[in-house]
Amino acid sequence: MSPGISDEQLLDLYRVMIRIRVFENGVRRLIDEGRCGHVSLSTGGEAVAAGVSAHLTAEDQIGSTHRPLGHLVAKGGDLKRMMAEIMAKATGTNRGKGGPYHIFDKGVGALGANGTVGGSVPMCAGYALANQLRGNSSVAVSYFGEGASNQGGVQETLNLAACWRLPVVFVCENSSPDVQRMLGHEIDYPQLSIDDVGARGAAYGIPGATYEGWDVEKVYTVTGEAVERARDGGGPSLLEFKIHRLGSDEDDPHCPIKRFREKLMSRGVLTEELDAEMRDTEAVNVKEAIDFAVGSPEPEPIDAHMGVFVEDD
Ligand SMILES: Cc1ncc(C[n+]2csc(CCOP(=O)(O)OP(=O)(O)O)c2C)c(N)n1
Question: Residue 60's domain is classified under what CATH number?
């Protein structure tokens, strides 16, 4: 038992983390076999996706990055339709027209990945403004990377969201601890003027802090506070989670799943049998998702004209 988190909740968090890893490993195999296009994976960020989404319902919105799969799986995304979208099939979440960089599932409140770095931030402020104007208690969560945090639009949005006390939580996944994995970034060539993006919250008068992103219990606890504050009209927060981008295995000492598994085992919350059962279940689900995607038709050329405009609902 962890303070404030029941054993059942801990196992739910673990299950979601496993689901994300198994799903992304399935996608990794498709990439290696040349059966889908380029996909940016989120491996290593499972604790953030699981810990954040544990506080959200389908009425709450998330806006994601170019590494959206973990966020979407944690938000309750349908694995079959997600896999079909990744393979550009007509049965996909975006009918095969968005691909992984724009994957979208309105039914679960996953309002879009963004190939444009930093794109989720102003969009989520917009969702939050809509929530505020409608007077509901929904909260928007915007995911972005530390690279995106330097975008002008991100800074402007933080200011406006603070001024208007919008119900939004800004979640920065900072993978710079793995500097060698950063895109186009030379070691020792500075990109950020400070170490901790969370510290920028103070510049806008909102709570901002930095945490270890492998620690799902910490993610769960601090996000719970930020989401509650946003729901209660207390305005936005900025949470930074330091993470390591990883490969497919769990041998890496930074692997959030490995670390959580060891904790849960030592506390007697998780057994080898339950762990194996969860992994088997997720493997079957992912296999079914791949089979569904493979067996689905491609979109018809005429579909390019469909779904372009939407009536107000
Ligand atoms: C507006 C914009 N500029 C540049 C790019 C090219 N690009 C794709 S991923 C990436 C790195 C983003 O870094 P970060 O936000 O920290 O995310 P990470 O990949 O580290 O998870 C860049 C520059 C882009 N997609 N959009």
Answer: 3.40.50.970
pTM, rounded to two decimals: 0.95
Is 301 within the bounds of a domain? no
Distance 184 CA to ligand 1 centre (A): 9
CB distance 147 to ligand 1 below 6 Å: yes
Torsion angle in degrees (nearest 10) through CA of 44, 231, 228, 199: 60
Q: Which domain holds residue 287?
A: 7-295
Ligand 1 binding pocket includes 116 (Cβ within 6 Å): yes
Considering only CA atoms, which residue is closest to atom 8 of ligand 1?
117
pLDDT tens digits, one per residue of 27-41: 999 999 999 999 999
307 within some domain = no
In a domain, 278, yes or no: yes
Convert the pLDDT of each residue in 145-187 to its tens digit: 999 999 999 999 999 999 999 999 999 999 976 554 455 555 5
- Of the candidates 197, 167, 202, 207, the one whose C-alpha atom is nearest the C-alpha of residue 55 is 167
**Number of domains forming the structure of the chain:** 1
Ligand 1 centre to CA of 304 (Å) is 27
